[in-house]
Amino acid sequence: MQIAYITVFTVVVVVIVFKIFFRRAIVLEYQRGLLYRSGKFIKVLDPGAHWYFRQSAEIKVVDGRLKTITVPGQEVLSADSVALKISLTSAYEVSDPATAVNQVENFQEALYMELQMALRDIVSAAKVDELFEKRAELSKQLLAATEGKVGRYGLKLHGVSVKDITFPGELKKIFSQVVKAQKEGLASLERARGETAALRNLANAAKMVEENPALMQLRVLQSIGESSGNTVVFGVPGQNVPLPLKRKDEKPAAGEQV
């Protein structure tokens, strides 16, 4: 009986001592743990339960899920000295938690600054109309300019998107007028092309009739067949008098020979 008491007492003491000197950390599936011993980084811990000596060791947990960061409206000068406000959004994840935590004081701020600087460099080298016409290209250029740099911070970029591009005050109205004028000019050009094509077709038809007079007779017969009336009038080349043509189902006038 005494041995049983001693055994239970020993187990209790061991459990108490274990809890005093050791601690358990749970690393979830979407996380990674960083194990430090005496302030020195040891290794990256996978998801699961991990025990460590609390007096000299520490575990920091890093979230590895996909995140987004927004760069609100930045005033940037274009190549033609127009002030624009551009806002961005970027999706990223922590691909190397040891580098992101140990090599960078704040990897989110570092990513923010890289996006800002890349935006200023790209916009300052392009004109306003180019930025609006190639908005998708701007996003691709931003991604290409930043993904290599933030990779050194232990981050992986999944995309950079331009949310908004806005003009200040009067410039917005002026640019809208310019775009409207361009659209109206294009519409006028298309109308002129259509009219030119129609005239060209008429000229070609006239030339064909001149070279082949029988075509006019065929056209007359075709029009008679398609007509719903009894009389079709054509202006025959070389004559100023309309030529009355009768359909087969029209009855002859009194005194007229059939």
Structural notes for this entry:
The protein has helices spanning 2-21, 97-102, 107-123, 128-133, 135-151, 169-211, 214-226; strands spanning 22-27, 31-37, 40-45, 48-53, 57-63, 67-77, 83-94, 155-166, 231-234, 243-246. The protein has a 3-stranded antiparallel sheet with strand order 3-2-5. It has a 3-stranded antiparallel sheet with strand order 6-7-8, with helices on one face. The chain has 258 residues and is of the alpha+beta class. Helix content is 47%, strand content 29%. It is built from 7 helices and 10 strands. The protein starts with a helix and ends in a 12-residue tail after the last strand. α3 crosses α5 (135-151).
The main β sheet shows up as: 3 strands, antiparallel
Distance between the termini: 143 Å
CATH class wording of one domain: Alpha Beta
CATH homology-level superfamily of one domain: Band 7 domain
Tally of strands:
10
Query: What overall form do the CA principal axes indicate?
Result: elongated
Helicity range: 40-55%
Average pLDDT score: 79
Order of helices and strands: HEEEEEEEHHHHEHHEE
Radius of gyration, taken over Cα atoms and rounded to an integer in Å: 42 Å
Q: What's the total helix number?
A: 7
Task: Give the low-pLDDT segments.
Answer: 239-248
* Percentage of residues in DSSP E strands: 25-35%
Strand order of the largest sheet: 3-2-5
Class from helix and strand fractions: alpha+beta
* CATH architecture field of one domain: 2-Layer Sandwich
Using the coordinates shown, work out and report the CATH topology of one domain.
Answer: Tetrahydropterin Synthase, Chain A
